[in-house]
Amino acid sequence: MTIQLKAKQVSMRFKDRVLFHVPDLTIGPNAAIYLKGDNGVGKTTLLKILAGLLKPTSGEIDPSSPRFMSCLFGGAGRKDVIYLHQSPYLFDGTVYQNVVYGIKHKRLDAQDKRAEVISALRSVGLETLADEHVSVLSGGEKQRVAMARAWVLKPSILLMDEPSASLDHESIERLVYMAQDLLTHGSSIVITSHQTNALTKLCRKQWWIKDCTLIESPLLQIIDKKQTDQESDYAASNSD
Predict the structure, then answer these.
(1) What are the two backbone dihedrals, phi and then psi, of residue 211, each rounded to the nearest 5 degrees?
(2) Which positions fall inside the ABC transporter domain (predicted)?
């Protein structure tokens, strides 16, 4: 089941400085959003608020935000919203142990759980490293493990904070595959990135944090208008 997450009058203040004030926003169902903004405007802070990892200075999130551990790894609480950090935290253990942790409370026998984990690792190209300790992984491989751990939970909303930073082309393509799969099954994604890439091209809407507020625009209309203008210019040049 997918959910719709709504925020109203959400503000974040640090002492006398207002980082941002968002009158309202809605995520889902089946949304793909590109969150943009300059460094320091609060993109990461906003994602953490939506995930329940930070409490805003004021405002409401509906449904109520889940507890920290439930948000990251599932369990007794709601596991609908997952935040994927740019530098993901991995447990001191094997690749397999890190991914299976997300579904340890799921009512499946050990064999079925292993099948789900191996399927997730295969999707990110790391099934052969399932029994390796995470300390031997590269930065890109760690990010792929974190994505597999999130994907195996089948979240309703996945918040991806600079997921492609410092990743090679193969790693980005692996993340794209999993993000596409989530969208196919009705989930929503929000992606922050400082440059367009294969992940941001999945998005159909964009948010800008600018002048301490959130500006929303449908990404497809922007692309379509640019393409229409280019086609019009091409047609005009050929008619001369």
Answers:
(1) 55, 40
(2) 5-235
CB 123 within 8 A of CB 145: no
Asked whether 68 and 52 are in contact (CB, 8 A), the reply is yes
DSSP assignment of 119-173: HHHHHTT-GGGTTSBGGG--HHHHHHHHHHHHHTT--SEEEEESTTTT--HHHHH
pLDDT in tens, 30-79: 999 999 999 999 999 999 999 988 999 999 988 765 444 444 444 333 45
Backbone angles phi, psi at 33, to 5 degrees: -120, 135
In this structure, what DSSP letter does residue 184 have? H
Domains of the chain by range and CATH?
5-214 (3.40.50.300)
H-run or E-run covering 189: strand 188-192
What lies within 8 Å, CB to CB, of 43 at 6+ separation is: 35, 36, 37, 161, 192, 209
